[in-house]
C-alpha cells in the first residue's frame, strides 16, 4: 500500500520509543502495528500529513507500507509494521496530491489544511479552498486550489492557479474558473 508521511528536516520522526531515523529506499520493520502506539505511522490522505508536520523545513514522502495495516479513525492515520520511503514530495506536490485524493474521496472528512469557502495562501506556498462558491487569493508564487461542490457536497469543478503577477494577481480573490471575485463591502452605519 502507498501512503504519505511527514518528517523533520533530517528525516527523523518521533515514535513511542523515541526518535527514529529514516533513509529513502530502505525497508524498516517493527513486530506490531497499532495506531498511536506501535509500528510506522502514515496517512492515506496527503493533506492529513500537515496535521503532524507543517514547519517550513519539514519533508514529505510517498511511502510503501507492508504487513497488517491498523487504522483508528483519527483523520486518515494508519500504522504498519513495515515501511519504505519511496519518493520525496515538495509541499506544493503534497497539496496537489491532496486535491487529487479529495476528488477521489469527495465525502471524506476535510483535512485541517482545507479552508471552507474562502482562503488566503499568505505567501505560505498554497491554499486549498472548498465550498459551493470557493475563492482564494495569495502572493506571488502561491498556488491557489479551489474545489467547487454542489448542494450534496459532491465535487463538480476544480481550479488550480499560480499567482504569477500577470494573469493571476496577488491579493485578489479568484474563483475556480480563474475569474476575479468582487468582495462585498460592509455598509456604513
Give a brief rundown of this model:
The protein is mainly beta. 7% of the residues lie in helices and 40% in strands.
How many angstroms does the end-to-end distance come to? 59 Å
What's the order of the H and E elements? EEEEEEEEEHEEEE
Q: How are the strands ordered across the major sheet?
A: 1-6-9-4
Q: How many individual β-strands?
A: 13
Quaternary status: single chain
Helical residue percent? under 10%
**Largest beta sheet, briefly?**
4 strands, antiparallel
Percent range for β-strand residues: 35-45%
Please state the average pLDDT score.
93
Radius of gyration, in angstroms, nearest whole number:
19 Å
- Structural class of the helices, strands and pairings? mainly beta
Overview of the structural elements:
The protein is mainly β. It folds into 2 domains: 2-91, no CATH class; 113-189, no CATH class. Helix content is 7%, strand content 40%. It is built from 1 helix and 13 strands; from the N terminus they run βββββββββαββββ. The protein has one helix spanning 91-104; strands spanning 2-7, 12-15, 18-21, 28-29, 40-43, 59-66, 70-71, 77-80, 82-89, 114-120, 126-137, 143-149, 155-162. The protein has a 4-stranded antiparallel β-sheet with strand order 1-6-9-4. The radius of gyration is 19 Å and the shape is elongated. The mean pLDDT is 93.
Amino acid at each position: 500500500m502507498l501512503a504519505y508521511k511527514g518528517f523533520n528536516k533530517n528525516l527523523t520522526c518521533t515514535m513511542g520509543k523515541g526518535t527514529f531515523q529514516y533513509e529513502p529506499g530502505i525497508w524498516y520493520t517493527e513486530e506490531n502495528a497499532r495506531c498511536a502506539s506501535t509500528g510506522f505511522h502514515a496517512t492515506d490522505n496527503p493533506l492529513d500529513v500537515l496535521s503532524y508536520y507543517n514547519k517550513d523545513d519539514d519533508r514529505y514522502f510517498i511511502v510503501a507500507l507492508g504487513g497488517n495495516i491498523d487504522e483508528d479513525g483519527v483523520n486518515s492515520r494508519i500504522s504498519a509494521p513495515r515501511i519504505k520511503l519511496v519518493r520525496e514530495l515538495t509541499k506544493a506536490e503534497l497539496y496537489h496530491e491532496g486535491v487529487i485524493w479529495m476528488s477521489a474521496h469527495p465525502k471524506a472528512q476535510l483535512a485541517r489544511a482545507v479552508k471552507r469557502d474562502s482562503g488566503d495562501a499568505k505567501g505560505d506556498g498554497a491554499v486549498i479552498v472548498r465550498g459551493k462558491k470557493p475563492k482564494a487569493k495569495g502572493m506571488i508564487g502561491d498556488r491557489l486550489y479551489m474545489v467547487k461542490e454542489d448542494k450534496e457536497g459532491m465535487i463538480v469543478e476544480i481550479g488550480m492557479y499560480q499567482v504569477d503577477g500577470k494573469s493571476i494577481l496577488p491579493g485578489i480573490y479568484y474563483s475556480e474558473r480563474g475569474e476575479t471575485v468582487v468582495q462585498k463591502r460592509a455598509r456604513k452605519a
